[in-house]
Design brief:
By secondary structure, this protein is mostly helical. The chain contains three helices and no strands.
């Protein structure tokens, strides 16, 4: 893969898998993370929300209106549904 090994390239089926991988396998105490994601989806917001050190900061994130919350919950539901199949 263009000089990258399978141990350094990761593919995820959904945003929650990516967020959990970052949170549980990559981050170390004191790390600062720069994320880049599409603005047409909620991928960015979902991963940032998962990585917040202070969960009350979630209110400072963008796309908090009810329509976005419904979409976020649908993405989350689809993730958990995929675990049971």
């Amino acid at each position: 893969m263009h000089g990258y090994s399978d141990s350094t390239v990761h593919h995820f089926e959904n945003t929650y898998q990516a967020g959990l991988f970052i949170k549980e396998r990559l981050l170390k105490a004191g790390d600062v993370v720069l994320l880049k994601a599409s603005q047409n989806t909620l991928f960015f917001e979902i991963i940032v929300e998962m990585l917040l050190a202070d969960k009350s900061d979630v209110e400072k994130l963008c796309r908090r209106e009810p329509i976005w919350e419904r979409k976020r919950q649908l993405i989350k539901k689809n993730f958990y549904d995929s675990l049971s199949t």
